[in-house]
Amino acid sequence: MHKLQTSDTPSAADIEFTDFLKVDIRVGTVVDVQESPEARQPAYKLWVDFGGVIGVKKSSAQITDHYKVEDLMGRKVAAVVNFPARQIGPFMSEILVLGFPDAEGKIVLFAPDTEVPDGSRLA
Fold first, then answer.
1. Cα(108)–Cα(119) distance, rounded to whole angstroms?
2. pLDDT band per the 50, 70, 90 thresholds, residue 1
3. What angle do CA 61, 62, 64 make, to 5 degrees?
C-alpha cells in the first residue's frame, strides 16, 4: 500500500525522462461499474475501454466518496495500463485509475477536459 500524497507532500526525487516514458498512461471510457462489498475499504470495480489495441481492462478504485455508480458510467478516466495486475481480494485489478486527493484526502478522478479518443496516450 502506498502512502497518500497530499498537497503538502514534498516533491519526489528527480527521474530521467526515459523513466517517465516507461509509464503508459491512457484515457478510456468506463463501460461497467459494480460495487465491491468484499473490499476492506469502500471501492468500485471498474471496467474501462481503452479502444481496439488495449481493449477493456478492469480496476478496483476507492472513489466512493465523490462518485456514485451512475456518475461513472460513460465517464472518461486516465489510467496506468502497464503495471502488473494486482489481486484485490477476489478481484484482479489490471490498471491503476488516476486521481488526486482533495483537501480531506478523498480521491477525485483525473481526466481530460476535452474529448479525446479511447486509448490516447499521455504525451
1. 21
2. very low
3. 110
Going from N- to C-terminal start, the domains of the chain cover 27-109
In order, the DSSP letters of the chain are -PPPP-TTSPPPPP--HHHHHTS-EEEEEEEEEEE-TTSSS--EEEEEE--TTT-EEEEEE--TTT--HHHHTT-EEEEE-SSPPEEETTEEE-SEE-EEE-TTS-EEE---SS---TTPBP-
Candidates 3.40.930.10, 2.60.40.10, 2.40.50.140, 3.40.80.10; correct CATH number of 27-109?
Answer: 2.40.50.140
- For residues 102 and 92, give the distance between their C-alpha atoms in angstroms, rounded to a whole number: 27
pLDDT at 10: 87
Could you tell me the pTM of the whole model? 0.91
Tell me the C-alpha distance between 81 and 119, whole Å: 10
Q: pLDDT band for 73, please (50, 70, 90 cuts).
A: very high
